[in-house]
Amino acid sequence: MSSQNARLETGGFVPFYRSYTKTWVHAVATAGLTAFGTLTIVHRWFAALALASYVVPPIVLYLRHGRDDDRTDADHEASAPERDESLTESEPEPDTPKSESNHAEPESEPSGSSRAEPDATGTIETTDELESPASSDDGEESTAADETAGTAARDAREKPEPESEQAWHTVEAPTDATLRDVAVAAADDTADSSAAYAVGDGGIVLTDDGDEWTAVLEDGPAAGGNDLRGVDATADGAAVWVAGDSGALGRIDAETGRHTDFTAPEDITDNWLGVAVGGASGAETILLINGSGAVLRGTYGTDGDGRALEWTGPEKPGSGSSLSGVAFADDAVGYCCDTNDGVFETTDGGESFDRVGLEGADGTLTDVATAGRDDCLASADDGVVHRYDGPTWTPERVADDALTGVARREERAMACAADGAVHERAGAAAGWERTDIDAAGALLAVSLAETRAVAVGEDGTIVARG
Q: Which of 150, 170, 237, 256 has the highest local Cβ count within 10 Å?
């Protein structure tokens, strides 16, 4: 059959003529009609030629096409059994078994399904249609169902995923003062006890209620407006300690929000550069560090007359270089670091310290974090985190910019950088992954809890996850 006839439909003259109008023969016949019609101005008999040139071709093609179709159908019916028998007889037996994926039959997949699905090993299974539709209506319903399913699948693929609850996001702060430290104030981090506290310039102390942050203190525990540089919470999250310049020191009751001023402990008005708290509320151990390399140790508890706060020290665990970070793992084990590669460990709640490193660091240490004895991380301003697993120190390149803070929670670790990025390691054997955050300023401190993390920095910057 010619390519022209192959395009012509069967089933009556109207379907045939509809397909005929799309062929080149119809185009020629139309041209003849126009040409001979124009010549009627010469002689009226050209009108007959015009009509004949347009009417005769479709009639001839229709009659010829019908006969060809009849012969073709008859030949097909006569030869169909022979072809089937021939194919059956000549089908070769396979020498080797074919892949099961080529013959796997779905147990419950609808017959209208035509998309091959990959199996667990990446092999694509192909299935043959087991049954033909019982009627054209069934076929139409199957097609409609396939189209509906396909549309739903496309919509599901194109619909953007909702933002994960664990994604980092910026939080509006009620201040533009630089925030220098942050602490999540609940070790178990349950929904009704989780809270975070941030401290910064001018004595500002902020706490959050979800993503809404409010000021607990506007100008420090002694209302002196001195910059605050450290904050930490008790193990149960019931109390929070803040410390800063000119000996500023205070304790905040997390439940009531009331604070007690303990500024200038032991009449010391040094600038406190950090604070760490070990133990539960009412049995607290407090460590304060300063720029002279000294540690002041305090205990807060109950005596016969009520609450009592006692201090011992200050003691210098190192050479006198400024201390830059301090952290407790529990009420006994803790670490502090200085700006001269010194890292010091206590196993008696800060009564004594032993130097455990660090030698040969290229950068200056900026912060320290711990999850227990012989388990310490120290960040540096050259983008390296030094990992201690007693007695070995291992440097890990985390960033190209200065790391300003580091946090630890069991096997997870997190560090913040001066360029506003956060770097996280999911486990001891995992690598560090960088997350760029649309932070307004440099990040200076980070705190990591069970299901949330918070980082703070310049210009009132607060970013949170969870």
A: 237
**Closest C-alpha to 205, from 218, 193, 224:** 218
Contact between 227 and 201 (Cβ < 8 Å) = yes
Q: Angle 403-407-409 (CA atoms, 0-180°, nearest 5)? A: 150
From first CA to last CA, the distance across the chain in angstroms is 70
User: To 5 degrees, how large is the angle CA 438–CA 441–CA 443?
Assistant: 90
- Which structure tokens are listed for 364? 């200056």
- 353 vs 83, 331, 341, 458, CA distance in Å? 94, 14, 15, 33
Q: Are 272 and 243 in contact (CB under 8 A)?
A: yes
Helix count and strand count (H, E) for the chain: 5, 28
Please report the sign of the dihedral spanned by the C-alpha atoms of residue 3, residue 7, residue 9, residue 14: negative
Q: How long, in residues, is the chain? A: 466
Element (H, E) at 370: strand 365-372
Distances (CA, A) of 11 to 16, 62, 307, 360: 7, 11, 101, 92
d(CA 458, CA 77): 86
> What gap in Å lies between CA 375 and CA 39, rounded to an integer?
105
Q: What percent of the chain has pLDDT over 90?
A: 54
Instruction: Give yes or no for residue 142 having a pLDDT over 50.
Output: no
Which pLDDT tens digit goes with each residue over 17-58?
A: 777 676 777 788 788 778 777 878 877 777 888 788 888 887
Dihedral of the alpha carbons of 77, 83, 88, 89, in degrees to the nearest 10: 130
Nearest Cα neighbor of 377 from 402, 408, 334, 351 is 408
CA distance 110 to 104: 15
Peptide bond into 391 cis (omega under 30): yes
pLDDT digits (tens, 9 = 90+) for 397-406: 999 999 999 9
For residue 172, what is the DSSP state?
-
Q: In what order do the strands lie in the sheet with 432-436?
A: 403-409, 412-417, 421-425, 432-436
Q: Give the mean pLDDT of the chain.
A: 79
Beta carbons of 356 and 345 less than 8 angstroms apart: yes
How far, CA to CA in Å, does 405 sit from each of 125, 178, 344?
52, 15, 17
